[in-house]
Amino acid sequence: MDTLAAHAHERPHDKYQRLIAAAQRLPPLLVAVVHPCDDVSLQSAIEAQKLGLIAPILVGPPARIHGVADGLGVDISALPLIASAHSHDSAAKAVALVREAKAQALMKGSLHTDELMGAVVPHDTGIRTERRISHCFVLDVPNHADPLIITDAAVNITPSLEDKVDIVQNAIDLAHAIGLEDVRVAILSAMETVNPGVPSTVEAAALCKMADRGQIKGATLDGPLAFDNAIDLDAAAIKHIVSPVAGRANVLVVPDLVSGNILAKSLTFMAGADSAGIVLGARVPIILTSRADSLPARLASCAVACLVAAARLGAMRAGAQ
Length: 321
Hints:
alpha/beta; Rossmann fold; Isopropylmalate Dehydrogenase; eleven-stranded mixed β-sheet; 12 helices; 11 strands; disordered N terminus
């Protein structure tokens, strides 16, 4: 915990500290760190290793990585390093490590998300599953009791209703993996009534009925809900919404990438939240961070990946019995 506490100058990160503590009880996750060619990405991997969260495999141009390490004053001679020619090659070689069962997760370094995902999604050479790939933010919001999951703000631009079934299920599985026993999913729109002129309200109602029919499992869903009556009990009471989710949601499903990105970044930059990022639905979790993320958020992203990988392994073992 020393590393996290040392960098949490502004406020305590109790929710992230709980996630990291839970992940530290697991064996370190074997993570292919894709193109760690700047200070932020290499430092994140090294700090996560120090906390016992990951065992990093660096994938990138050796001269550039060693140059960054020298600039940081860190010794990476003991870390495995897979040489690549450039960022696209780094992504391809990291994905190959997963396909060869030599890595249990991927971690984005100093390359564009599109470059990394471009290596992940091909059917023949990537690491897709039958589940739609989607992104979740796990936010540590000040004065909010639990971690808050927002999906999808980075991968699916304008998801269809079919896509949203997997997006919701990925988020529910994530919520259970990080220890949320009572998962309450709010399907967000601009209003809490179904309006045929606002397609996101119709899709929200359909998703809730699909959950009633067992097509989405493991959570209580409600929607459409506006943001205020999804997370604030008083706002829900004013609108006379009687629901186990309204005012108490811990998973927020947004209509599209733009609205999700704006919501998550509004909470980050206006409300002081930290946002850990994870991509789900591939064979392994993908740790997705931004250069603007704080170190606590980047370490929490690694912790979330550890917990997701452990939950997936537990589910596979249970299914094999």
